[in-house]
Amino acid sequence: MPMIVLVIAVLAFSCASSGGGGGGVKTEQTTSDAKYNWNFSDSASGTAGWVVSEDSWDFHGTTSLSRDDKTFGKGMLRWDVDFSKDGNSDWSEPKLKIKLDKPVDGVRRICFDLIYNPALTQDGHFKSKAVILNGSKELSAANTDAILGLDQVANGFVKAPVEISVRGSGVNNIILSIASYKTTYKGPVFFDNLRLE
């Protein structure tokens, strides 16, 4: 009986500590589950390869993407979005994308903290969607329910942990979006602890 418990414990530890290999110059592995962990603390890294996609869904505003290390005293990915013309939309979706340095196997999810200021809109809420691809072939896609930030950060901003379950191997392209559900939010949203697991 003790031997069975020991074997189970070893297997559980093995699963919990098995991580991905990939990284590349824009990323670094910081936890056992992280296959990519985008680190925005280095000013030279800029947006670490993330760019605004030319593709969107029912979005009539503008966006700009940058690395911000002043607002909260640490490097984060900052996305300025304008949903002011999309307050009647159930799903207004500008998108970000990135091409990875090399394909990644065994992807299970994309995780990040979303930081936003609820005072910048009076209605609705955010959702998020992630798509993982091999080249242009979609491997998996999923979206979240309402994202509601409960943790106060600073200057009226709140933080919400987000986890999107997507599964696939050979992942070398990612599309990530913050979608507005009947909001007129105009201002920055921030991504922190952004990682592929």
Number of domains: 1
Number of E strands: 12
Order of helices and strands: HEEEEEEEEEEEE
Percent strand equals over 45%
Query: What is the subunit organization of this protein?
Result: single chain
Count of helix runs: 1
Shape call: globular
Main sheet?
7 strands, antiparallel
Could you characterize the architecture of this molecule?
It is built from one helix and twelve strands, in the order H-E-E-E-E-E-E-E-E-E-E-E-E. The chain has 197 residues and is mainly β. The chain has a single domain (2-196), classed as Sandwich (Jelly Rolls), CATH 2.60.120.260. Strands 1, 3, 4, 6, 9, 10 and 12 form a seven-stranded antiparallel β-sheet that branches. A hairpin with a 2-residue loop joins strand 7 (125-134) and strand 8. The two termini are 34 Å apart.
Question: What would a concise description of this structure say?
Answer:
The chain has about 200 residues and is mostly beta strands.
Which structural traits does this protein have?
single chain, 197 residues, mainly beta, Jelly Rolls, 7-stranded antiparallel beta sheet, 5-stranded antiparallel beta sheet, 1 helix, 8% helix, globular
Give a topology summary.
Layout: H1 2-17, E1 36-37, E2 51-57, E3 63-68, E4 76-82, E5 93-104, E6 107-116, E7 125-134, E8 137-143, E9 151-152, E10 158-168, E11 171-181, E12 186-196
Antiparallel strand pairs: 1-12, 2-5, 3-4, 4-12, 5-11, 6-10, 6-12, 7-8, 7-11, 9-10
